[in-house]
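Just scan this pair:

***
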Amino acid sequence: MASINTSSSLPLRFRRLDFSQVPWEELDRFADRTVFQTREWIRFIAETQNATPVVAELREGDAVLGYFTGLTFRRLGIRILGSSFPGWTTPYIGFNLRPGVPRRLALEALEHFAFRELKCLHMEISDRNFSVEDGAQLGFAVGSYDSYATDLTRPEEELFQNMESAARRCIRKAEKSGVKIEEAGDEVFADEYYAQLQEVFAKQGLVPTYPLERVRKLVHHLLPTGRLLLLRARDAENNCIGTGIYPGYNKVAEFWGNASWRKYQQLRPNETLHWYAIRYWKRRGAEVFDWGGGGTYKEKYGVQPISVPWFRKSRYAWLDAARQHARTLFDIKHRMLGKLRGGAQRVEKPEAEE
């Protein structure tokens, strides 16, 4: 066990590692490790965002206290460090730290590393183990990734009973209707999922916020690791009526996305996919099922709201204002594309988003 030496005058600092020389097995043994910090997930982001991975040791003298994982990239010529960043379909990355090492001190060292050594002009970071005070005390702008969570340490029967009666009825109806869930192991799955996703978004007059190629890359990088659960729901005639994507590692499993054909939704494939995924990851030792963001429809599963702090800071104030403006423009562009492609009127929040 390592901790901060309070009598030491040595500052904490980060030392960047060559990506090909990162001790991945050592990092994967950290208790706070999530799937979004693994080598394969970082490669997935690097390829889909044209970004460069950054893995760095946090050091106090010769002692290694933990690690940081992120990526650098450019927007309009501005060098940015993200860990994570909006649009990456990756809600948090952050640190892996040994017991007793405060995240606020790691964040302070990261700011120096980002601006002085990496020569970035803007940085963003979200970490499941941050507190709001960690960033606020250092002058970071504070946002949040808001989601829901299911406590997988509870017995399976209790998890089911804690759902609202409507959710339980949907799962039972699917079973009585002959809906079966199968685990997929092929890259063709991405095309099935994305076709259904397009229909889900079209119901709102929108288009998906990410392209088909991103789903293909996710499957390509993560499926061989055993850290990505791909599910198909089939009806009694063996038609694929719904799909779901659920990555997981260590203590945390994630809902990344799901979709289903509208004409089959009376068979309730979505609820059945989620229930299968919850049990799958629970049986593999996960303690938390993160529902992948907001959406009031998720409340019927007996969840608890969670909020993960998201910090950002720019070397110059105008950069942060520009970042906020760019985000607004992206949202407007997304809605306009949906209208131009003939989407239907808005009805309800899709069951498949970032």
In short: The longest strand covers residues 63-75. The chain has two domains: 12-129, 149-306.
